[in-house]
Design goal:
heterodimer, A: alpha+beta, Aldehyde Oxidoreductase, domain 4, 7-stranded mixed beta sheet, 5-stranded mixed beta sheet, 29 strands, B: alpha+beta, DNA polymerase, domain 1, 2 domains, globular
Chain lengths: 774, 158
């Protein structure tokens, strides 16, 4: 981060002190981590809500839209290398037991087969091909052949040759916690409860006029990205190149380097386009290791891409929950206590995070106690899935709030305003900005909420209409470390270099917009280069809605640095004080006469010849503030009381995400979250056969994701504004928040239509009919 | 074996590429058509076969002899985008973009058969193409922009 320039040459708050290291807290997917980070050499002055911006805050089309609509965008499975071989992984068809037989030699002798791996053939750090089976779908062997067809035939032979000493399994939470439960893991089937408490819950319960207790259940949901996990691996001597469908190229690099025992400098990870991820593609997987190992052994490039069954079985999931909630309040609606006891069946692995955090964050309740117990079951492990924990927690918390509103005969919006959090009571700190009250007001207005809740009772009919709402919070501050460079080429065109990923969120586009804005350049001259660990500065995984608030400030700082250098060069050429100059529309202009450009970037750079201007940027530490994106959603549904079929007619969503860099792309994120939330509310559910222990929803017919026919009218927007206290771009993360309140809002609307609370997701016809029968 | 792909006669080997999708992707290097499920459930491989929409992952190459196949690579006329491609760009109707080629072909087939579809007709015609990113409302908007939908259609209906 060295820089030769002084601090008095027109930069924003530039500081010539050498970089130093400080501690900061970063929240990833709702978990707080303390990190030591480098303090940037300077921090630009924040873009406030009043800062006039001309590119940030507008909606140019995605910079990569042309590639996407022409079929030219190359995804991992589209990568073809000369002499490329194909690998297929063979997976366990049982939930628990020990592999007793597998015909590796038979497979090796089959047409086109080049190599086979089974138990003992992969480095232990890959955790591949272990003979002790602990879930159906666990990799047991892999085959590599000249064509995918030949690899699949050999894999079928291997699958047919498997024999096991089968052991008892537990694939449901009830089976795993039963007194005579089989041991899912040697360490035990449950974790010690993680208890977090503030205030005095016993006192809060004693002070209450009304106390409700409910048990809510949520299902296992599968990410179901249309592009399966996959990798292409190619060795050149001792140097490995990995094309991977991933949210985190640097994480894949460190995973592969560690597992294979090679230095990170010998591993290059590339990711151009990715066909969806949603939290399931955060590191290297069995497909990566299998491809890399075969490629090394055989001296040829190898592609390994999951089939749909593997994708729906062993690629992560949103775990189920059982949440026992007690909510206590005074007659006027003031919350006095919130209590959660949650069981979270994670599968065979996963990070121990659950639904508790939103109970501590969404409302200003003085007394809150949560206990989370994770349970291991013989099923594929969890992976973060858009809004992990908060989606599950919101269903229970917000359903309990709606039940309380019904009990107290208070408007659900009024009940929430009564308990509005004005500071982050969990971490005892102020918000950088939080306009949830405005989200309620704006959402209610757009929806017509007051007339919906005051409507007369509907006539008796087969189709009943109902209205419901829910709120949401999500930590979206992002944070360091993230680095970016901005390079001005000799024709004045601009490269933004950042080792990040665009999952379809639009990161390429918004980073180009931020750089163009900061540089005073035309957007069409800015090219964002991402997705290459060897050539680009480090940024973190694209998870936790972190990319915009983490990488955005680094890109802005790099662009400001480059702009300052460009102006210094112009000041020399025109023999004028640098303070008198600025930029706009790819021109250097005099501050005194901005309409008379002195020189275009192109002409200035031509005069400089091959002098290369490179600006460096890094993401500074976070403020001692809670940075959250909040919002409210309102749902209108119709329920057929004879069939139990729910149809969502309308969703209104209003969220506060700080500054919105590109409103059209942000609206697409709202649509995506709401539509995934609708699937979670109505039909998405992984089923495992309890007796056989094998998953049944292994394709996109049996695992139901929303189709175009399921989509309601959606009116989704962000409040105008900016959050300059969060970071100097003023933007927070926005991708995960919109999925969080959708299911509880729909469930509340169904409860409103039927007069019966909905305690379990998804709201399939038989569950709706079951609730009616209660 | 011969077939015509995007107007050009091509040779493929059905014994090495049993499905039309494998022939297009692996033998003709037309990777715009995607493999999502391999079971005709997601629509990412949607192409047109003699004008009809088919899931290329379920279509046997051997059954396509002398057939006319159109893929996303054939939608544009040189560097001039098909109106649907331009509308998908304008209305941000592609997020990750993986389902987009199939969506475009389904939309093109719809508008050829029914130039002025209602919203319900659009939804019905497009419901064989999944989009996990949830781009559906903007796909409807993009199709309607090209379809010159009659003015009586409600403007706020996705």
């Amino acid at each position: 981060m060295s820089n030769a320039h002084g601090d008095d040459r027109g930069r924003n708050d530039r500081d010539s002190k050498a970089a130093r290291f400080v501690q900061t807290t970063v929240e990833v997917e709702g978990r707080t981590e303390t990190r030591v980070v480098e303090l940037p050499a300077f921090e630009p002055a924040p873009w406030t809500a009043d800062t006039p911006l001309s590119i940030v805050g507008t909606s140019p089309p995605r910079v990569d839209a042309f590639e996407k609509v022409t079929g030219r965008a190359r995804y991992t499975a589209d990568i073809v290398r000369p002499g490329m071989l194909h690998a297929v992984i063979v997976r366990a068809p049982i939930a628990k037991g020990t592999l007793a037989a597998i015909d590796l030699d038979g497979a090796r002798a089959m047409p086109g087969v080049r190599e086979v791996m089974g138990p003992g053939d992969a480095p232990p750090a890959t955790r591949l091909f272990r003979p002790d089976v602990s879930y159906a779908g666990q990799p047991l062997a892999a085959v590599c052949a000249e064509s995918l067809d030949e690899a699949e035939r050999a894999a079928s032979h291997l699958a047919a040759s498997l024999a096991f000493a089968v052991a008892p399994h537990a694939v449901t939470v009830d089976d795993a916690i039963a007194p005579d439960a089989p041991a899912v893991r040697p360490e035990g089937n449950t974790t010690a409860p993680d208890i977090v408490e503030r205030g005095d819950v016993a006192r809060g319960l004693a002070d209450a006029d009304v106390t409700l207790t409910r048990e809510y259940r949520t299902q296992v949901a599968l990410h179901s990205a249309l592009e399966p996990h996959g990798a292409v691996c190619e060795w050149n001597g001792d140097h490995l190149t990995v094309w991977e469908s991933t949210q985190g190229i640097f994480r894949v690099r460190s995973d592969v380097a560690r597992a294979l025992g090679v230095p990170q400098s010998k591993v290059r990870v590339l990711k151009d386009y990715i066909g969806g991820a949603f939290g399931a593609k955060n590191g290297a997987g069995a497909h990566t290791y299998a491809a890399a190992l075969f490629a090394r052994t055989l001296g040829a490039p190898v592609r390994c891409v999951n089939d749909r069954r593997a994708e729906q079985t062993d690629s992560g999931n949103r775990p189920a929950t059982v949440q026992r909630v007690t909510i206590a309040a005074r007659r006027d609606g003031t919350l006095t206590a919130l209590v959660l006891d949650a069981l979270i069946p994670l599968g065979i692995s996963g990070w121990e995070g659950g639904p508790a955090q939103i109970f501590h964050e969404l409302y200003a309740c003085p007394n809150v106690r949560t206990a989370e117990t994770c349970v291991y079951i013989n099923a594929g492990g969890m992976q973060a899935f858009r809004g992990p924990g908060y989606v599950e927690g919101a269903f229970a918390l917000e359903s309990a709030m709606n039940a309380l509103a019904r009990q107290l005969e208070i408007d659900p919006v009024a009940l929430r305003l009564k308990n509005l959090a004005t500071r982050d009571e969990r971490a005892n700190r102020e918000f950088s900005g939080n306009r949830l009250d405005e989200c309620y007001a704006e959402g209610a207005k757009r929806f017509g909420w007051s007339s919906a809740v005051r409507r007369p009772p509907s006539a008796v009919s087969r189709v009943q209409r109902g209205y419901g709402m829910s709120a949401q919070t999500w930590p979206t501050g992002g944070g360091p470390p993230s680095y970016a460079d901005v390079r001005i080429n000799s024709d004045g065109s601009i490269d933004v270099l950042a080792g990040t990923q665009d999952l379809g969120t639009g990161a390429r586009t918004i980073l180009a917009q931020i750089a163009a804005e900061a540089l005073g350049a035309r957007l069409d001259t800015v090219h964002a280069v991402i997705g290459d660990t060897e050539r680009l500065p480090y940024t973190g995984n694209s998870w936790g809605s972190m990319t915009t608030p983490s990488v955005g400030p680094a890109v802005r700082m790099a662009a400001e640095d480059a702009k300052a250098q460009l102006l210094e060069a112009a000041a020399q050429l025109f023999d004028t004080p640098v303070e008198s100059l600025t930029t706009g529309a790819s021109q250097v202009v005099s501050r005194a006469a901005p309409s008379n450009p002195l020189v275009s970037f192109a002409d200035l750079c031509r005069k400089l010849g091959n002098v290369q201007i490179v600006g460096h940027g890094s993401r500074g530490p976070n403020p001692e503030l809670a940075v959250v994106t909040v919002g409210a959603q309102f749902a209108e549904v119709e329920v057929d009381v004879e069939t139990g079929v729910v149809r969502v007619l309308r969703i209104v969503a209003v969220h506060d995400g700080g500054r919105i860099i590109n409103p059209a792309l942000a609206e697409s994120q709202l649509h995506g979250g709401i539509i995934q939330g609708l699937g979670y509310a109505l039909f998405e559910e992984r089923h495992i056969d309890r007796v056989l222990g094998v998953p049944l929803t292994v394709n996109l017919h049996d695992y139901k994701v929303p189709t175009m026919s399921d989509i309601p009218v959606i009116d989704a927007s962000f409040l105008d504004g900016a959050d300059p206290a969060a970071n100097h771009v003023g933007a927070r993360g926005i991708a995960e928040p919109p999925i969080i309140p959708t299911a509880p809002a729909i469930a509340a609307a169904v409860a409103d239509a039927l007069g019966v609370e909905m305690l379990e997701l998804p709201l399939t016809p038989w569950r709706v009919l079951g609730a009616l029968a209660r | 074996m011969r077939l015509t792909v995007n107007g050009t006669p091509r040779e493929v080997d059905p014994s090495r590429a049993p499905t039309l999708l494998a022939a297009l992707r692996d033998q003709l290097n037309l990777t715009g058509s995607k493999l999502g499920c391999d079971h005709g459930e997601c629509g990412a491989c949607t192409v047109r076969l003699d004008g009809d929409l088919v899931y290329a992952c379920l279509t046997l190459t051997a059954a396509c002899e002398d057939a006319r196949v159109e893929t996303v690579e054939g939608l544009a006329d040189g560097n001039t985008l098909h109106p649907l491609q331009q509308a998908f760009i304008t209305h941000d109707a592609a997020q990750c973009g993986y389902c987009t080629p199939g969506q475009l072909l389904a939309a093109a087939a719809l508008l050829e058969h029914n130039p002025h579809p209602t919203n319900d007709e659009i939804r019905a015609a497009m419901s064989g193409n999944l989009c996990r990113c949830g781009t559906y409302p903007k796909i409807v908007t993009a199709i309607r922009a090209v379809a010159d939908t009659p003015a009586d259609a409600p403007a706020d209906t996705p």
